Fold this protein.
Amino acid sequence: MERILLAHGGGGSLTKQLIRDLVVARFGNPALAPLSDSALVELPQGRVAFTTDSYVVKPLRFRGGDIGRLAISGTVNDLAMAGARPLYISLALILEEGLALDDLAAILDSAKAAVDEAGVTVVCGDTKVVERGAADGCFINTSGIGVISEGVSVAMERAAPGDAILVNGSIGDHGVAIMSAREGLSFDTPVSSDVAPLGGLVAAVLEAGGDAVHALRDPTRGGLGMVVCEVAEACRHDIELDEVKIPVRPEVQGACDLLGLDPLYVANEGKVVVVCAEAVASKVLTAMRAHPLGRSAVAIGRVLDGAKGRVTLRTTIGGRRVVDPPYGEQLPRIC
Amino acid sequence: MERILLAHGGGGSLTKQLIRDLVVARFGNPALAPLSDSALVELPQGRVAFTTDSYVVKPLRFRGGDIGRLAISGTVNDLAMAGARPLYISLALILEEGLALDDLAAILDSAKAAVDEAGVTVVCGDTKVVERGAADGCFINTSGIGVISEGVSVAMERAAPGDAILVNGSIGDHGVAIMSAREGLSFDTPVSSDVAPLGGLVAAVLEAGGDAVHALRDPTRGGLGMVVCEVAEACRHDIELDEVKIPVRPEVQGACDLLGLDPLYVANEGKVVVVCAEAVASKVLTAMRAHPLGRSAVAIGRVLDGAKGRVTLRTTIGGRRVVDPPYGEQLPRIC
């Protein structure tokens, strides 16, 4: 089996060959084609959003996705959460000497499928190789540029009393899928990661809700619990969540019970939390449910008048508990 | 001594503390301040350049610089080589558990100094931590956005017969500095890396030469030899270099002799190769020499009529040899 050599990252002819055969063959487009120091891109009118994320997920492949799909989806989602239409993506690989070229090809195939699904373009990239033991297979950094249309203004500070809190489906799937893969756990119903690019779903939300969409967040590291705490802190209003309304797959709940995790704090990679005026909530929910990534969209809570910035959960048994922000992610290398 | 823990990368309160104390304390600005998923930036009129690079240099600190200065300079330079004014930078850290916080602080101090020198703004970032042994201290990815002014059009294809080839100073300094640090070599006159952000120097070149500046390249991995070969291949003209004119510090030449390296292929991180019409060469050289990073600027060759895209070197002893593109970088993890 052919494997990555140090010389693949040296910038010479082996690097060129790798980039031509593995990267350009998949992602080729006029902006990427020159393989020059910088890509030249055209931006439509609007405010520009810029984001970056490195992906170090372990294992590289898991049920429902891999680091390639994750690296594209995560950065597309960061742009979408700013209310931006994701347009251009950079793709930077740090490869460990010895990585099988077939594994790298599969990761890039998966990234390419996510790129097409998201309707974005990879315009620039970089490849570095480090010696065996100096990295763990493959790390990927993606940065992204998007443009925010006139009339869109999402910010956690805009969340206001009476606003509805919506989510597009079940929580905790990504974290449990990773944990299961890592620990070799198997369940009767295996859990797949929800990793997906949400640009299209978010566009539908913004079209339905317009300016009454106040905030968008993707509950990745730290899960739903963390982003709702962040919204409450930023807008300085209390938020109440209904535990009974929060969708958790039974197999995810079961795995969490087994592992001592709270699904509220488990990472997602294909979920969006929408905070919008109550008046448009039902219209937005309808739009979400019409999208393949939003079929199980549901309202899970509301912003209250209280100004302590505190989050409470009405539990399934009718009690009430405070939701605190987590100290740290329960699982390392979840993304 | 305090060290990086896995929880520093978990996205929870320890991550927030690290980002506040180490990143925002240095790079804070209105775009970075919200620490949201994406930064919102304003771009002036002009074509937009977008670039990315990961830095895996070993060791993290070397004479003349460190990975922090390198990560800012390298990405600023990639934008500058497109003829763009570098504006916004992303900063993504992959940290190994156990990295000393003081070492990280020193790296970020150095990055901050380079940011100020380059006149750019860090607007977004990311921090991931991997367990001990899964990375090598610290990897940094920076992406960058710049804007190309009206009237600027640099591309290797524009190099034309008669054009002068200029360089802003001695070659091979970065590669030899890294190699010396890594191998524990010491020389009577220690070699310092040339790592520096070249945005200001390139702006001076473009102001002096205008549209007659045809191509700009930074001879990083693969060195001067590689970029000149790439220019020749792209413009489909032969290029002749004068070995006697190419500045090489005696201590760099000495180290290369000892290590069996050819300075022509050794990496630089603060050099620019300018290809411009002969008519403006002297004006451009004067402008370069007036800049602190171009005091030793010199003409080292010219584009010929020949259309084979071949590079030849007139050697110091009056001979002539073909310069081939390197197979790969001679040293891994040079940047």
Remarks:
- Residues 189 and 251 of chain B are 6 Å apart (CA to CA).
- The helical segments of chain B are 13-27, 67-81, 101-118, 173-183, 199-209, 223-235, 250-259, 278-289.
- Chain B has two domains: 6-148, 156-323.
- The domain at 156-323 of chain B is CATH 3.90.650.10 (Phosphoribosyl-aminoimidazole Synthetase; Chain A, domain 2).
